Amino acid sequence: MTAPVPSLVFTRIHHARRAPVEHAFAYRSLSWLVDVDDLPVLPRGLRWAARFRADDHFPEQSWPGQTLRGRLDAHLADVGAPAIDGRVTALLSPRVAGYVFNPLSVFWCHDRVGRLRCVIAEVHNTYGGRHCYLVHPDARGRAEVDKQFYVSPFNDVSGRYRLAVPEPDSAGRVRVAIALDRPGQPPFTATLRAQLRAPLATWLVALRIRVHGIRLWARGLHIHPRPRPSVPTRKGHVR
Protein backbone atom coordinates (compact mmCIF):
# COMPACT_ATOMS: atom_id res chain seq x y z
CA MET A 1 0.00 0.00 0.00
CA THR A 2 1.16 3.53 -0.74
CA ALA A 3 1.69 6.08 1.98
CA PRO A 4 -1.18 8.47 2.71
CA VAL A 5 -0.62 11.97 1.34
CA PRO A 6 -0.51 14.70 2.30
CA SER A 7 0.93 13.77 5.68
CA LEU A 8 3.01 15.59 8.26
CA VAL A 9 6.20 13.68 9.04
CA PHE A 10 7.64 14.45 12.45
CA THR A 11 11.31 13.61 12.14
CA ARG A 12 14.48 13.14 14.10
CA ILE A 13 17.62 13.89 12.09
CA HIS A 14 21.05 12.64 13.17
CA HIS A 15 24.50 13.56 11.77
CA ALA A 16 27.75 11.83 12.75
CA ARG A 17 31.33 12.68 11.77
CA ARG A 18 34.15 10.45 13.04
CA ALA A 19 37.25 12.05 11.48
CA PRO A 20 39.33 14.13 11.57
CA VAL A 21 37.20 15.53 14.41
CA GLU A 22 34.55 13.40 16.09
CA HIS A 23 31.28 15.30 16.20
CA ALA A 24 27.63 14.23 16.27
CA PHE A 25 24.31 15.95 16.80
CA ALA A 26 20.60 15.28 16.45
CA TYR A 27 17.54 17.50 16.21
CA ARG A 28 13.82 17.32 15.63
CA SER A 29 12.18 18.71 12.53
CA LEU A 30 8.98 18.61 10.49
CA SER A 31 8.57 17.63 6.84
CA TRP A 32 5.59 17.02 4.56
CA LEU A 33 4.90 13.93 2.49
CA VAL A 34 2.99 15.11 -0.57
CA ASP A 35 1.84 14.26 -4.08
CA VAL A 36 3.54 16.78 -6.40
CA ASP A 37 0.35 17.02 -8.48
CA ASP A 38 -1.84 17.80 -5.46
CA LEU A 39 0.13 20.00 -3.08
CA PRO A 40 -1.71 20.98 0.12
CA VAL A 41 -2.90 24.57 0.42
CA LEU A 42 -3.74 26.09 3.79
CA PRO A 43 -6.76 28.37 4.23
CA ARG A 44 -6.17 31.90 2.94
CA GLY A 45 -5.54 33.42 6.36
CA LEU A 46 -2.91 30.79 7.22
CA ARG A 47 -0.95 30.56 3.96
CA TRP A 48 1.82 32.74 5.40
CA ALA A 49 2.55 29.91 7.84
CA ALA A 50 3.27 27.14 5.30
CA ARG A 51 3.14 27.12 1.51
CA PHE A 52 4.89 25.35 -1.35
CA ARG A 53 6.67 27.15 -4.18
CA ALA A 54 7.72 25.21 -7.27
CA ASP A 55 10.88 27.25 -7.84
CA ASP A 56 12.23 26.18 -4.43
CA HIS A 57 13.17 22.90 -6.14
CA PHE A 58 15.34 21.76 -9.06
CA PRO A 59 18.22 23.77 -10.58
CA GLU A 60 16.66 24.67 -13.94
CA GLN A 61 15.47 28.20 -14.66
CA SER A 62 11.87 28.76 -13.59
CA TRP A 63 9.08 30.77 -15.16
CA PRO A 64 5.79 32.17 -13.81
CA GLY A 65 3.05 29.62 -13.33
CA GLN A 66 5.35 26.60 -13.51
CA THR A 67 4.23 23.71 -11.30
CA LEU A 68 6.41 21.43 -9.23
CA ARG A 69 5.59 18.58 -11.63
CA GLY A 70 6.61 20.84 -14.51
CA ARG A 71 9.94 21.57 -12.87
CA LEU A 72 10.54 17.87 -12.24
CA ASP A 73 9.74 17.10 -15.89
CA ALA A 74 12.12 19.84 -17.05
CA HIS A 75 14.90 18.45 -14.88
CA LEU A 76 14.44 14.90 -16.16
CA ALA A 77 14.58 16.19 -19.75
CA ASP A 78 17.67 18.27 -18.99
CA VAL A 79 19.62 15.28 -17.64
CA GLY A 80 18.43 12.96 -20.39
CA ALA A 81 16.27 10.75 -18.15
CA PRO A 82 12.98 9.16 -19.27
CA ALA A 83 9.80 11.08 -18.53
CA ILE A 84 7.70 9.97 -15.55
CA ASP A 85 4.03 9.32 -16.32
CA GLY A 86 2.85 8.19 -12.88
CA ARG A 87 2.56 9.42 -9.33
CA VAL A 88 5.42 11.31 -7.70
CA THR A 89 5.53 11.36 -3.91
CA ALA A 90 7.88 13.85 -2.29
CA LEU A 91 9.29 14.45 1.17
CA LEU A 92 10.08 18.14 1.55
CA SER A 93 9.59 21.26 3.62
CA PRO A 94 7.27 24.15 2.75
CA ARG A 95 8.04 27.81 3.15
CA VAL A 96 7.43 28.77 6.78
CA ALA A 97 6.74 32.47 7.39
CA GLY A 98 8.25 33.15 3.95
CA TYR A 99 11.46 31.18 4.56
CA VAL A 100 12.47 27.74 3.30
CA PHE A 101 15.51 25.53 3.73
CA ASN A 102 15.43 21.97 2.40
CA PRO A 103 18.78 20.28 3.18
CA LEU A 104 17.39 17.15 1.53
CA SER A 105 14.21 16.61 -0.48
CA VAL A 106 13.33 13.17 -1.83
CA PHE A 107 11.08 12.45 -4.84
CA TRP A 108 9.82 8.88 -5.42
CA CYS A 109 8.86 8.69 -9.11
CA HIS A 110 6.48 6.01 -10.44
CA ASP A 111 5.13 4.91 -13.79
CA ARG A 112 1.42 4.82 -14.60
CA VAL A 113 0.94 1.34 -13.08
CA GLY A 114 2.62 2.33 -9.80
CA ARG A 115 6.11 0.86 -10.24
CA LEU A 116 8.97 2.88 -8.81
CA ARG A 117 11.12 4.09 -11.72
CA CYS A 118 13.67 6.32 -9.97
CA VAL A 119 14.33 8.42 -6.91
CA ILE A 120 15.60 11.99 -6.98
CA ALA A 121 17.52 13.15 -3.90
CA GLU A 122 17.79 16.94 -4.04
CA VAL A 123 20.47 18.48 -1.83
CA HIS A 124 20.58 22.16 -0.85
CA ASN A 125 23.49 23.87 0.86
CA THR A 126 23.50 26.99 3.04
CA TYR A 127 24.95 29.08 0.17
CA GLY A 128 21.77 28.88 -1.90
CA GLY A 129 23.01 26.09 -4.19
CA ARG A 130 21.12 22.92 -5.06
CA HIS A 131 21.89 19.67 -6.86
CA CYS A 132 19.80 16.61 -7.78
CA TYR A 133 21.04 13.02 -7.64
CA LEU A 134 18.92 10.64 -9.74
CA VAL A 135 19.28 7.04 -8.58
CA HIS A 136 17.62 3.67 -9.22
CA PRO A 137 17.39 1.92 -5.83
CA ASP A 138 17.26 -1.84 -5.42
CA ALA A 139 14.34 -3.66 -3.78
CA ARG A 140 15.54 -2.54 -0.34
CA GLY A 141 15.80 1.10 -1.35
CA ARG A 142 19.60 1.14 -1.57
CA ALA A 143 21.63 3.02 -4.18
CA GLU A 144 25.08 4.56 -4.68
CA VAL A 145 26.21 7.68 -6.50
CA ASP A 146 29.39 9.77 -6.71
CA LYS A 147 29.37 13.03 -4.78
CA GLN A 148 29.15 15.99 -7.19
CA PHE A 149 28.05 18.94 -5.08
CA TYR A 150 29.67 21.14 -2.43
CA VAL A 151 27.62 20.91 0.76
CA SER A 152 29.80 21.41 3.83
CA PRO A 153 32.90 23.64 4.10
CA PHE A 154 34.51 20.72 5.96
CA ASN A 155 34.19 18.24 3.06
CA ASP A 156 35.54 18.65 -0.45
CA VAL A 157 33.64 17.40 -3.50
CA SER A 158 34.96 13.85 -3.41
CA GLY A 159 33.73 10.46 -2.30
CA ARG A 160 30.69 8.33 -2.95
CA TYR A 161 27.28 8.37 -1.31
CA ARG A 162 25.49 5.25 -0.12
CA LEU A 163 21.79 6.01 0.08
CA ALA A 164 18.91 4.18 1.72
CA VAL A 165 15.69 5.68 0.35
CA PRO A 166 12.94 3.06 0.71
CA GLU A 167 9.46 4.29 -0.10
CA PRO A 168 7.39 5.55 2.84
CA ASP A 169 5.13 2.79 4.10
CA SER A 170 1.34 2.74 4.30
CA ALA A 171 1.43 4.31 7.76
CA GLY A 172 3.47 7.26 6.46
CA ARG A 173 6.63 6.22 8.29
CA VAL A 174 9.82 7.40 6.61
CA ARG A 175 13.48 6.46 6.95
CA VAL A 176 16.22 8.03 4.84
CA ALA A 177 19.93 7.40 5.42
CA ILE A 178 23.01 8.73 3.62
CA ALA A 179 26.65 7.76 4.18
CA LEU A 180 29.56 9.52 2.47
CA ASP A 181 32.52 7.19 1.87
CA ARG A 182 35.97 8.67 1.19
CA PRO A 183 39.28 6.80 0.82
CA GLY A 184 41.07 6.33 4.12
CA GLN A 185 38.32 7.91 6.24
CA PRO A 186 35.36 6.57 8.20
CA PRO A 187 31.97 7.41 6.65
CA PHE A 188 30.08 10.59 7.40
CA THR A 189 26.44 9.60 8.05
CA ALA A 190 23.09 11.34 8.18
CA THR A 191 19.76 9.68 8.97
CA LEU A 192 16.16 10.88 9.09
CA ARG A 193 13.44 9.03 10.98
CA ALA A 194 9.91 9.80 12.16
CA GLN A 195 9.82 11.71 15.44
CA LEU A 196 8.14 14.73 17.09
CA ARG A 197 7.14 18.16 15.87
CA ALA A 198 9.28 21.31 15.93
CA PRO A 199 7.59 24.69 15.19
CA LEU A 200 9.20 26.88 12.51
CA ALA A 201 11.41 23.91 11.70
CA THR A 202 13.07 25.33 8.57
CA TRP A 203 14.44 28.31 10.50
CA LEU A 204 15.80 25.96 13.17
CA VAL A 205 17.53 23.62 10.70
CA ALA A 206 19.43 26.43 8.97
CA LEU A 207 20.44 27.95 12.32
CA ARG A 208 21.64 24.63 13.76
CA ILE A 209 23.74 23.82 10.68
CA ARG A 210 25.54 27.16 11.02
CA VAL A 211 26.06 26.75 14.78
CA HIS A 212 27.60 23.28 14.34
CA GLY A 213 29.77 24.60 11.50
CA ILE A 214 31.19 27.28 13.81
CA ARG A 215 31.89 24.64 16.46
CA LEU A 216 33.78 22.44 13.99
CA TRP A 217 35.80 25.41 12.70
CA ALA A 218 36.66 26.40 16.27
CA ARG A 219 37.97 22.87 16.88
CA GLY A 220 40.42 23.24 14.01
CA LEU A 221 38.66 21.37 11.20
CA HIS A 222 40.04 22.45 7.82
CA ILE A 223 37.69 24.41 5.52
CA HIS A 224 37.63 23.51 1.81
CA PRO A 225 37.05 26.48 -0.53
CA ARG A 226 33.70 26.50 -2.29
CA PRO A 227 33.95 25.83 -6.06
CA ARG A 228 33.06 28.61 -8.48
CA PRO A 229 29.47 28.62 -9.78
CA SER A 230 28.77 26.24 -12.64
CA VAL A 231 28.96 27.55 -16.21
CA PRO A 232 25.68 27.41 -18.17
CA THR A 233 25.60 24.61 -20.73
CA ARG A 234 22.82 26.23 -22.73
CA LYS A 235 20.41 29.09 -22.22
CA GLY A 236 18.64 28.82 -18.91
CA HIS A 237 20.37 25.61 -17.76
CA VAL A 238 23.33 25.00 -15.50
CA ARG A 239 25.40 22.02 -14.47
Please sum up the structure shown.
The protein is mostly beta strands. 12% of the residues lie in helices and 35% in strands.
Percent of residues in helices comes to 10-25%
**How much β-strand is present in the residues?**
35-45%
Q: What is the molecular shape?
A: globular
Q: Would you report the number of β strands?
A: 12
Organism: Gordonia caeni
Pfam families: DUF1365 (PF07103)
Protein name: DUF1365 family protein
How is this structure best described in words?
This protein is mainly β and 239 residues long. It is 12% helix and 35% strand. The chain contains two helices and twelve strands. The strands form two sheets. The chain has a ten-stranded antiparallel beta sheet with strand order 6-5-4-3-2-1-10-9-8-7, with helices on one face. The chain has a two-stranded antiparallel ribbon with strand order 11-12. Pfam families: DUF1365. It comes from Gordonia caeni. This is DUF1365 family protein. InterPro entries: DUF1365.
List the keywords:
35% strand; 239 residues; two-stranded antiparallel sheet; mainly beta; single chain
Strand and helix layout:
Elements: E1 7-17, E2 23-35, H1 68-78, E3 88-92, E4 104-110, E5 116-124, E6 130-135, E7 142-146, E8 160-164, E9 175-182, E10 185-194, H2 201-218, E11 232-234, E12 237-238
Antiparallel strand pairs: 1-2, 1-10, 2-3, 3-4, 4-5, 5-6, 7-8, 8-9, 9-10, 11-12
